[in-house]
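Batch manifest line 563
LIGAND: arginine
JOB: complex structure
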Amino acid sequence: MDFKNEVVKLLSSKITDLTQEEILDAIEVPKNTSMGDYAFPCFKLAKTFRKAPNMIATEIAESLESDVFETIAPVAAYINFTIDKTVYAKQVVEKVIKLGDDYGHQAIGENKTVIVEFSSVNIAKVMHIGHIRSAMIGNSLARIYDALDYNVVKINHLGDYGTQFGKMIEAYKLWGDKEVVEKNPVDELVKLYVKFHVEAEKDSTLDDKAREWFMKLEQGDAEATHLWQWMKDFSMIEFNRVYDLLDCEFDSFDGESFYSDKMPAILDELREKKIVKKDAGAEIVDLEEYGMPPSLITKSDGSSLYVTRDIAAAVYRKKQYDFYKNIYVVGAPQQLHFKQWMQIVKLMGHEWADDCVHVMFGMVSMEDGKMSTREGRVVKLEDVLVKAKESIKVLIEEKNPGLENKDEVARQVGVGAVVFQELFHNRIKDYVFSWEKMLSAEGESGPYVQYAHARACSLIKNIEVGDASVDYSILKDDVSMEVIRQLSKYEETIQDAARKYEPSIVTRYVTSLAQMFNTFYNANRISDQTPEIKAARIALVKAVKITIKNALHLITIEAPEQL
Ligand code: ARG
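JOB STATUS: finished
ARTIFACT:
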């Protein structure tokens, strides 16, 4: 039942000169719940009723009757509707239980396709703690859009192309050892890359050789292609371990190299449409008119650039997927890059440039000082996840040694704790990674929410309730009602998170729900109560359990039944 529609139905039986839509539009939701759940202002009716608005409010309010509303009362020029708590509790709790895993799923997206590009790591580079941001914000947005019934396409736009691969090939040819690299691919390739830079300082011919290798790669030379593919495959083995831990999945790994043969056509078009101009041997797009510095499209040696590949990728995606939205989850430092190429796409005459969205985010730093890739002070993401899992394992051994599948639960809780911390903050904010806050079972943490879920599971399992129908009037107390109101906000929370590209809205929602549930649990005894009370309270616990689990799924956190 839609309570707002009920208000419209009631009012339209008394107000004939407003359409149902006009009535619907005029209905307000009072900020203060003591003023009712809905309010209808009567000012507009003064003309036809030929009375003062407050008199009209009184007259209409007194003439209306409904089982759905506890009270329909005039307050000054408003008619206030207060939903009957029993009806409301029944409606919300029954809906959640009936829908189960599908609670939150909404048919909004129809057949529209949303592309979420995320993670997009660079081959042969270490995946450090900072990389968790794009991975998890993106993975979560994909699930959020999926819940809204969009067709979601998850793309990892791998950084697998560019002159650095020429350097890596040259370095490997000079100093590399196949076995050593295959044992520990990313670390060894990074070492070779670093060595290349050191040696190139002394010997400038190295840079020429690297350029040659990259040229060969671009031309499809067999050896260059083979070495590059090998580096890519072995890097992916490492990345996939992290993606598995994080529960990140992709539909496509078409990265930068995929677009190399799609760029000439783009360059031709840019030249034909006179969007690029020559500048000291290179080609640029002048963006002064849009308040941006010029964008470099080709270098003087004719090789193409990051910007050009992004333009080619966007054009390809539009053709391939006909997206409704094309979302890029990439850090704030690349803001200008995205603004520039999206503007160029617009200059090419593609109105869909406006459907491309750069979802940016701030930085993560470690408590013990900043990370620095250059000084070799990186905190590897995989190490963090493994350490989190191990810390939780120790806690489980201490507190619940009899738990089944301890390893699996340790992973769910440990990794969940890291992910929760990542998705708790507004994405644009920088945050400091804190082991202590993250693993705490109190307050705003993953373990806290998972614990509330596990508590709900154990109540459901251990408290016997018959299948007599539930008396929802038992849930009229304030703490129960607070939980019920929160449950009912779940669907709009998902919509809000999608609209703002902000998974933290879901994280905060589920944290509040867990807090309210704990308050409910502390205030309302269950096990030693009458069968009626037990049945009603357990129904609420079931609805909470479902909603926590579904919400955690949206932020890529699992919900074990036992901790
Ligand atoms: N690989 C790039 C980096 O690590 C990020 C790619 C972002 N996506 C894009 N379409 N430009 O900086």
